[in-house]
Amino acid sequence: MNEDKATRYQRLRRRAGLVSALASLTVLLIAASAGLTGATARLADRLLHGDRLLNGDSSAASAIALMLAAALLVTLLHIVALPFAAYREWLLDRRYGLERVTFAQWRRQYVSDTASAVLLALAAAGLLRVSDVWLDAWWWLGFGAAAWAGQVLLTLATPWLLPWFLKMEPMGVPALTDRLQTLARRAGVSTLDVYRCHGGAAARRAQAALVGLGRTRRVVLSDTLIGHCNPDEIEVIVAHELGHVVHHDLWKGSIVTGLFALAGLAIAQIALTRWGAALAVLRPSDAAALPWLLLTAGGWLTITRPLRLAWLRRHERRADRFALRLTGNGEAFQTALRRLASFNLVEDDPSAVGRWLSAHPPMRERLALARSLHHQSSRPASR
């Protein structure tokens, strides 16, 4: 019965995501063909010069106009996506018992997320302007490298930023903490900070995540997971995250994502070189170029997403094998997976589309792996 419920839930989520993506594509095409961002930038440029706010500094005025156009475009995309996001992330989750927040609470979070996206758009537009002015035809290389460096810094800072948005604290279970520290040392990880994230009052999902890099690295477990999984199950879940640490998966994922993004930017440059004149776009930092850049680079990332997800699934399989060999507890691994699947409505055997669009292998495959390695693993004699 849970499998049928999970299948329906995941199918509806995928459909809503597809419709939302099509709506965003439509907005970008309209903005590009109608010259919306270019008109916004020209209006801002006239206002800035007319009010003598910049004392005739045309370069600064153009940069500010570009940033305002980027902010407008991102805001418009979030407004159009609002009804689809409300259905996918709030209504559907409440219908299937995964969400407990009110619509007003969800709406406030969406507005906060939109504001964060606008701030990132302002920074990205400023970076685009600087890269274009300084590097000319090689803007895409400078922009991509700087954006990747920013993403790495953000990943490093995530453990410090999360407490601003979520209530987090050390796990607070001394015996289990000692057990996990011992597990980490056996895995070759010198230190492991495990934190509890409070969210059970708002959502029933049980989640575990590895955040940060190097010295900022920590494992975050939701209070739902800690409250409903026994110590053996929590140990194999953390062992899986340790597999990502040992194999440097966060670093590798960041590099691969950055390379794909860089390729998308290079394709955007080629497209603008060939068709920019026909599109009335002279430079990549022209405000009129923003929708075309998003369509080109974003289209490339969308097309190649299944490749990147397949690569991530390979890492997840390796982390599963690492956890099973480190703990020797295939039984706890299976019960933990089943418990997580129940809480998060994960499909046991998704369709082909579901498999292509998932960062994790199918649940049935992961359970089969645990059963196959169960007899090959031997549990530690003592802890």
Chart the SSEs and their pairings:
Elements: H1 2-34, H2 36-50, H3 58-95, H4 103-135, H5 139-165, E1 167-170, H6 174-187, E2 194-198, E3 208-211, E4 218-222, H7 223-228, H8 231-246, H9 249-275, H10 290-327, H11 330-344, H12 352-356, H13 363-374
Parallel strand pairs: 2-4
Antiparallel strand pairs: 1-2, 3-4
Can you tag this structure with a few keywords?
383 residues, mainly alpha, single chain, four-stranded mixed beta sheet, 4 strands, 13 helices
Describe the structure.
By secondary structure, this protein is mainly α. The protein has one domain (2-374). Helix content is 73%, strand content 5%. It is built from 13 helices and four strands. It has a four-stranded mixed sheet, with helices on both faces. Strand 3 and strand 4 form a beta hairpin. Helix 4 runs antiparallel to helix 5. The radius of gyration is 24 Å and the shape is globular. The relative contact order is 0.11. The model is unreliable at 51-57 (pLDDT under 50).
Number of strands: 4
Give the N-to-C terminal Cα separation: 38 Å
The main β sheet shows up as: 4 strands, mixed
Strand percent estimate: under 5%
Number of helices: 13
Query: What is the alpha-carbon Rg in Å?
Result: 24 Å
In spatial order, strands of the major sheet run 1-2-4-3
Mean pLDDT: 88
Fraction of residues in helices? over 70%
Give the H and E element order: HHHHHEHEEEHHHHHHH
Q: Which parts are unreliable, with pLDDT below 50 for 5 consecutive residues or more?
A: 51-57
**Number of separate structural domains:** 1
Shape, per Cα inertia axes = globular
The chain-level structural class is mainly alpha
